[in-house]
């Protein structure tokens, strides 16, 4: 009761202070703690820690908005947008923040509004708009000396760039956050962004003690979300390096604290990693428990990575327990979640590329306009000297430029068309044999220089000749295209996928171990077998046989990998088809690679 009374009196006092400050505001009371400027500063400071008082201050100032100075009105507009975003009114928040970002005369306030907009647009999956705002933020950054505003902008930029696969720039911004934190901040947030970017880029070879120090700093500063996010990333690192027990220990020891944060997205990450770790340890009960928790705790109506991982673990648990129906149901959900998650990742990367190209095109337009203006200036000078000669010169110049532009455009379009025809398989749209060999040798050469292993998967469709003989080549072509579509959805952007001829295909997996390659091949095999061959013949089942060769056994020579993988594929055919065999170099002669028509 006393606490409620004190809160009511504090709120009433705040309202009276606002009224007095607005009515009596004058230059001489700029340093008065009850002035609009001071009240706005206080509201800005407590907005994330005392939201109720913050809301009262903003509402009371809004009543006298017409009497505020222009800078104070913009600050009030920014805080109103921030509050609308906080309570979930994203449309109102976005409009207010866009108004400040585009029209305010204070660059620091514009940068803060832009950084908040980037976060808001990213949450709403409006990635192209988010990257346009990121470009605006990058243009503002050099003029900003406010360290706290720069810190906020660097954090949002690092997270957005990391989500689109631009890891080097994301790491650069995170390092700047760590090197120059403003008063009241530590290395905590920068270290978390840096760790996440390095892990997602597969550049985290060892755990730097810096991250453990950063976690201690986060705990001391009360930044529990960032501390637990780093613990989640460290656990995922241990899991990726075949240390599931260490991953379980880190997460189980801190899971209750993470749950107390009431941050479902972080808890879903915890549970997804725990589910994978327990599955590797053979503890199917706990794997199922945390897999279900990861699915339930993921963002509703969105296919996030924890949901994808949770369904994948549940599928494997039910499969190992022999529950075929449940395994199939979870596999279908896993495939849907995996496709949606990869589509979202691709959308972020595509949005970045689109905005980047738009900015380059805009710069080219500005350069072209500048050149045109220069040409017009020179032309005007010539006109003043000799009108007739100048007119003739302009006509010839413009005609020549138009002819050159048309010729360059025509040649470029022809070149792109011929390059596409030369590199792509006409039926499936993936790499043809020659282009696959070229790309694969380039990736292997890079892997040899950087000492990163790779694996080659060869597979072909079982009894494909019977499909052609029975149903005709049109149905056979449709079977090939459906199989390729299934595989493309399961492959990564960095994988090299090509058709070697007929029904035989090859996939080169960079930075991949034999165990991972076998798991990927099994995934492809299951996906092909689980998908109907064609739409008009849904009951016709097509399977594939797989052979794998890795650089760990065969080296980085493509010819050798093809020979070993082809022999493994032949063994898979002899073993009954629809299976995966690893290559064995012991009995493979050093002879030219010849693909056999195995059917």
From TrEMBL:
Reactions catalysed, semicolon-separated, are: 2 GTP = 3',3'-c-di-GMP + 2 diphosphate
Source domain of life is: Bacteria
Could you tell me which Gene3D superfamilies the record lists for this protein? 3.30.70.270, Tetratricopeptide repeat domain
Signal peptide range = 1-25
**What are the protein's UniProt keywords?**
Membrane, Signal, Transmembrane, Transmembrane helix
EC id: 2.7.7.65
Pfam families noted in UniProt: GGDEF (PF00990)
* Keyword flag Thylakoid: no
Q: Transmembrane segments in this chain: where?
A: 392-411
Q: Transmembrane helix: present as a keyword of the record?
A: yes
InterPro entries attached here? Diguanylate_Cyclase (IPR050469), GGDEF_dom (IPR000160), Nucleotide_cyclase (IPR029787), Rev_trsase/Diguanyl_cyclase (IPR043128), TPR-like_helical_dom_sf (IPR011990)
Identify this protein by name: diguanylate cyclase
Q: Name all GGDEF domain ranges.
A: 452-585
The enzyme's first-digit EC class, named in words, is: transferase
């Amino acid at each position: 009761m006393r606490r409620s009374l004190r809160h009511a009196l504090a709120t009433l006092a705040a309202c009276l202070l606002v009224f007095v400050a607005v009515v009596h505001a004058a230059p001489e009371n700029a340093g008065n703690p009850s002035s609009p400027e001071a009240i706005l500063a206080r509201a800005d400071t407590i907005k994330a820690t005392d939201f109720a008082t913050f809301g009262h201050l903003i509402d009371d100032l809004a009543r006298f908005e017409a009497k505020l100075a222009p800078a104070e009105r913009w600050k009030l507009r920014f805080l109103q947008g921030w509050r609308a975003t906080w309570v979930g009114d994203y449309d109102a928040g976005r409009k207010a923040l866009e108004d400040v970002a585009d029209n305010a005369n204070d660059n620091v306030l514009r940068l803060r509004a832009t950084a908040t907009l980037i976060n808001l647009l990213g949450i709403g999956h409006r990635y192209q708009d988010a990257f346009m705002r990121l470009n605006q933020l990058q243009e503002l950054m050099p003029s900003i000396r406010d360290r706290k505003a720069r810190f906020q902008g660097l954090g949002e930029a690092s997270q957005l760039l990391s989500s689109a696969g631009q890891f080097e720039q994301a790491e650069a911004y995170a390092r700047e956050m760590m090197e120059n934190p403003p008063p009241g901040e530590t290395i905590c947030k920068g270290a978390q962004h840096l760790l996440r970017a390095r892990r997602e880029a597969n550049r985290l070879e060892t755990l730097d003690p810096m991250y453990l120090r950063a976690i201690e700093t986060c705990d001391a500063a009360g930044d529990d979300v960032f501390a637990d996010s780093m613990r989640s990333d460290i656990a995922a690192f241990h899991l990726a390096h075949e240390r599931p027990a260490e991953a379980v220990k880190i997460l189980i020891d801190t899971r209750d604290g993470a749950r107390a944060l009431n941050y479902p997205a972080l808890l879903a990450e915890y549970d997804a990693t725990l589910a994978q770790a327990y599955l590797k340890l053979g503890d199917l009960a706990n794997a199922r428990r945390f897999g279900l928790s990861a699915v339930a705790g993921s963002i509703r109506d969105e296919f996030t990575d924890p949901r994808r991982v949770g369904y994948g673990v549940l599928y494997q648990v039910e499969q190992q327990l022999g529950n075929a129906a449940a395994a199939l149901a979870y596999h279908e959900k896993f495939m849907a979640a995996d496709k949606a998650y990869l589509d979202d990742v691709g959308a972020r990367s595509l949005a970045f590329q689109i905005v980047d190209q738009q900015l380059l095109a805009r710069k080219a337009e500005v350069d072209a306009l500048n050149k045109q203006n220069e040409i017009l200036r020179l032309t005007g000078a010539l006109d003043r000297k000799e009108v007739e000669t100048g007119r003739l010169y302009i006509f010839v110049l413009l005609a020549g430029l138009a002819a050159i532009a048309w010729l360059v455009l025509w040649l470029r379009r022809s070149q792109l068309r011929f390059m596409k025809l030369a590199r792509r398989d006409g039926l499936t749209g993936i790499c043809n044999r020659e282009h696959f060999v070229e790309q694969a040798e380039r990736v292997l050469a890079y892997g040899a220089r950087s000492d990163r292993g790779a694996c080659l998967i060869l597979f072909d469709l079982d009894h494909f000749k019977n499909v052609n003989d029975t149903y005709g080549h049109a149905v056979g072509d449709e079977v090939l295209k459906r199989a390729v579509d299934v595989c493309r959805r399961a492959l990564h952007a960095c994988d090299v996928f090509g058709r070697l001829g007929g029904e035989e295909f090859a996939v080169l997996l960079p930075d991949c171990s034999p165990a991972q390659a076998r798991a990927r091949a099994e995934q492809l095999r299951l996906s092909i077998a689980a998908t109907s061959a064609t739409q008009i013949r849904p009951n016709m089942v097509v399977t594939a046989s797989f052979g794998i060769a890795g650089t760990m056994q065969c080296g980085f020579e493509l010819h050798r990998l093809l020979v070993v993988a082809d022999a493994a594929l032949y063994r898979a055919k002899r073993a009954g088809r629809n299976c995966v065999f690893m290559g064995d170099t012991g009995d493979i002669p050093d002879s030219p690679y010849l693909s056999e028509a195995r059917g």
